[in-house]
Amino acid sequence: MYDIPVTLTTNPKKKPEDESKLGFGKIFTDHMFIMDYEKGRGWHDARVVPYGPFVMDPACTVFHYAQEIFEGMKCYRRKDGGLNLFRPRDNFERMNRSAERMGMPKIDVEEALAGFDLTTLDAVCARGGMLPPCPSGAFAVDGDMIEYLAAITQGAHASNLGCVVARDIAEPLGIPSFVYDPVAVDEMPPMARITGIPELPRRMMGHALNTRAMAIRCAETVLHRPLDRCRLIVLHLGGGASVRLFIGGKMVDNVRDDELLFAPERCGGIAAEQLVGLCFSGKYDRAGVMKLVRGRGGLLAHLGTSDAMEVERRMARGDERAKLVYDAMLYTAAKSIGAMAAAAGGDIDRIILTGGIAHSAYVADYLTKKVRFIAPVEVMAGEFEMEALAVGAARVLSGRETAHRFRDLAKGE
User: Fold this and answer.
1) 151-160 b/e with 16+ CB inside 10 Å = b?
2) pTM recorded for the entire structure
């Protein structure tokens, strides 16, 4: 490991009592990392010192041209009290890409990583990509999985790279690698798949990782019983959106953001006749239509922004158009929750609101008023994918869960 000198503070701050309510940019550590740069010498004198002000020359370009980089690295506390960093190599490499654009010196990624002891890892777990329809849980990464995902060209998902990254980290360390609750999790029964066009059956796709993690959390901490004894509806609302119905521990139905509800960057439900007309209008090619469906639809298409906070700021300034479109999005979310409640015969234990937009008091209040007649509403705002990956891998390592094999999935077993 790289030997970084550490100077401990003599005046430690009071530690926060509740780590789940830290907020962003409000609570700072007792120490900070500093490293100097000189032309011809490069980066040098890495050190950890007590948190505090530091001197900068008034001629620094950061003051005149905003030549600076912000790069966040996430750290998670495990149940055993230890800490896990999330993908430090990717953070360093992304920082170097920013440095190149900003005309700033890059850092040595390998030297930076030398400050972390990867030999303490027990496993590597990554986001799962566009596998064939599959059950929830863990999948062991193998060559067949990587080959399958590499062959996907139409509708490729960024999470397809997750298994490659996991394997590349894990193999040199001699530890297992997994993907957990990939976007392709699909546990719908046959009846839920049938549409009026036999060639176009419904398929579950979307936010399996976060919605299942919140379903498990609600079952354990709110209802105090196993997930397979709960009946839950989970709405994930972020850049995309989906609603999942959990019965018997499985995701038995869902509403996608290209079906009924629209989202900041997703089109939602569109009348088929209108969509067919648009496709053959000559105005768009296939890629153009897909951008409207996923990427440039929803709030972005109507208001020119997909930032929910910006939309709420416009609403606060009296922008009636912004309020109309925002409320319409939430209206479709409420209808989607209602659809899942009907599919469950109205027998629902809890409705869970999650995803980044669930942090909004306006959103939580609007949706709670609309759907609380169905079941009590739990707001579990945020995106907990990284925590879900760590907890999922821990289940496998502890023997509480067995990882699926991709070859069995490919065989339809």
Assistant:
1) eeeeeebebb
2) 0.74
